[in-house]
Amino acid sequence: MSWAERISPTVKAIPPSGIRRFFDIAAEMKGVVSLGVGEPDFITPWHIRESCVHGLHKGYTAYTSNYGLLELREEITRTIYDTYKVSYDPRKEALVTVGVSEALDLAIRAILSPGDEVLIPEPCYVSYKACVLLAGGTPVPVPTSMEHEFRVTVEQLEKLVSPRTKALLIGYPNNPTGAIMPKQELSAIAQFAKKHDLIVISDEIYADLTYEGTHTCFAGLPDMRDRTILLNGFSKAYAMTGWRIGYALSNPDFIAAMNKIHQYTMLCAPITAQLAAVEALRNGKINMEKMVAEYNCRRQLMVDGLRSLGLSCFEPKGAFYIFPSIKETGLGSLQFAEELLKAEKVAVVPGDAFGESGEGFVRCSYASSINNLTTALERIGRFVKQRL
Description:
Blueprint: H1 9-13, H2 18-27, E1 33-34, H3 46-57, H4 70-84, E2 94-97, H5 99-111, E3 117-122, H6 127-134, E4 138-143, H7 154-160, E5 165-171, H8 183-195, E6 199-203, E7 228-233, E8 246-249, H9 252-265, H10 271-283, H11 285-308, E9 321-322, H12 333-344, E10 346-347, E11 349-350, E12 362-365, H13 370-385
Parallel strand pairs: 1-10, 3-4, 3-5, 5-6, 6-7
Antiparallel strand pairs: 2-8, 7-8, 9-12, 11-12
Helix pairs in contact: 3-10, 4-10, 5-6, 5-9, 11-13
């Protein structure tokens, strides 16, 4: 008997994550400099870890409300209001999730029916398309280009919207490109969503990692609050990836629907991680700003370094990724990544892991030390020199 035949065809058709594949290979090799996984190299600040330890000493080890600790939801909604002047009811319009990945999955499953289409600007985070497929929906890629700084336009969206389109899924600052969207262009997209009566899922996990200008919260645009499911979390800006804490904010109907799935599949996020998230929001801004300033220094190092090697490179304005073109080498994205890892022990992620429009690029994370980044640039330089 072949047990593989019993697996859902939908699951079988979804390829494994291109990010994790190279991470796993790199983890088994000695001397590898990994620019593959988007994880801060900083340890969660001590005052945040201490709040977790204190909670354990106090015996806080039970379940919380499915929606999450009310104390945390109040801090989340207060922070969003103070930052973007968008108001949410912490009791009915906020849901604490196990990372933003769960929030994304819940949002998609809560709103999609089989056959519904979702517009997704690409390159994009690897789970966007997979989550839509697993929910029975149809992802509709919207290609963007380096020439337009990987920003999606209303003209591109208009060409692909159809009567079956239910939602638009965007993520800015963008993973993998580091692109951001100016407020004026987001406002035009908001009007597009209103015109076609679309729900907008806005993944803003990298909002605090914006280096030029000010991040625009999509839900804060006119008439977008109730139409938008706003996703964010603590992994990136607060160096809390392993704590697995994210959240979703939206109108009460969407949040209740998401919580219905959440309560049957996850129940609640870990209480100790929720306590840590409360501390992060109350007292973590100074440490967060220090980390962001360090990322900005690394960003400039990588931009200048990659360009000096002869690689065309869009200057990222947010997140902690850079997405250089490797077309000049004559290699495809996968071949470049595989040969670079084998020849120079530097791990990067092939650009086509983030959609077809990522072919000809690779993603490099600069959430690593200056020493590691300098070493990686030296090794990439030797590799590229042989092929240019």
